[in-house]
Design a protein that fits this description.
single chain, 42% helix, D-Maltodextrin-Binding Protein, domain 2, Arc Repressor Mutant, subunit A, five-stranded mixed sheet, alpha/beta, three-stranded antiparallel sheet
């Protein structure tokens, strides 16, 4: 099996005819038919049903084409990568932090001459590290605390990654503005008993990769979501609470209140990069913009406390 045969299958399926596909591919119909027959013999399955009305994919053919299109797509991207007009892409994998939007928008403007695509992938801890380790993301944003530190450090080392701190932040509680606890200046964990908790859904990996700083209480109701907007909607619609580092910007701050958790241990926010890849200028610039955003956020918290 080779890439050319994958392309043959794609074109034949689209044209519905060996003759028409042969014309589009600039090959003879007998050679095209022979190549597909060789592929079917190699795989041990029939890819097409031939008839006087043309050809159509079998169930095995549909399954083959699904995977073949992925390969073809990746090869097309690889070919485009080395065309003179190609512009690079920059990807960040992160937990659900809206404060990253301004740094990303800033570097998108500064690097628009050389970069065309700028992506922020909001996902789980496990996937963040996998994206960075496989070079699908240029860097990842995660946090360490006493609960997950040793597990994450082992995972980081195992995947040949490096963690760099961006600062330490205490746990804060997220509530709707008219929540019964919303007027407090700080909240003890015992005061949260009886309230449901909203949490981000993580993979069932067998490891403690939880993104939420607070643990689930005994017999506590849990509302799970893997979408930040849904989490905020659940908070606004219920008396449930969420926990996080409290680094929130934009319109979300107008919908909820963020209250410090009493006696909260600090959490270390940071970024992970691959040890096998030198930090690029755009990564360095993005990190500097994050530091500016975090510094501005900390100053805002200090003013709120004052």
């Amino acid at each position: 099996m080779n890439l050319q045969q994958c392309r043959y299958v794609e074109v034949i399926a689209r044209c519905g005819s060996f003759n028409q596909a042969a014309k589009e591919l600039f090959v003879t119909q007998p050679n095209l038919s022979s190549s597909i027959k060789d592929l079917e013999n190699e795989l041990g399955v029939q890819l097409f049903i031939r008839s006087n009305m043309g050809v159509r994919l079998t169930e095995d053919g549909y399954d083959f084409l699904k995977y073949a299109k992925r390969i073809i797509g990746e090869m097309d991207l690889l070919e485009q990568r080395y065309q003179s007009t190609f512009k690079k892409s920059f990807t960040v994998a992160s937990h659900h932090y809206d404060f990253l939007s301004v740094p990303l928008a800033t570097i998108a403007q500064h690097f628009q001459e050389d970069y065309q695509e700028f992506q922020l992938l909001e996902t789980t801890t496990k996937r963040i590290m996998e994206y960075v380790a496989s070079f699908e993301a240029d860097l990842g944003i995660i946090y360490l605390n006493e609960e997950n530190k040793h597990i994450l450090e082992r995972a980081i080392e195992h995947q040949d990654l490096e963690f760099t701190s961006l600062g330490e932040f205490p746990t804060r509680i997220f509530l709707r503005r008219d929540h019964p606890l919303a007027t407090k200046t700080e909240i003890a964990e015992s005061e949260l008993e009886g309230y449901n908790q909203v949490r981000f859904r993580q993979e069932k990996s067998g490891l403690n990769f939880d993104e939420d700083p607070l643990e689930v209480q005994h017999n506590q109701g849990i509302l799970y979501s893997n979408d930040r907007g849904t989490v905020m909607n659940l908070l606004c619609a219920t008396d449930a609470y969420a926990s996080g580092l409290g680094i929130v910007d934009g319109f979300i701050k107008e919908q909820i209140v963020i209250i410090p958790l009493k006696d909260s241990p600090p959490h270390t926010l940071g970024y992970v990069t691959s040890k096998q890849k030198k930090l690029s200028p755009i990564c360095s610039a993005f990190i500097q913009e994050i530091k500016k955003s975090l510094s501005s956020h900390q100053e805002g918290l200090d003013l709120d406390r004052a």
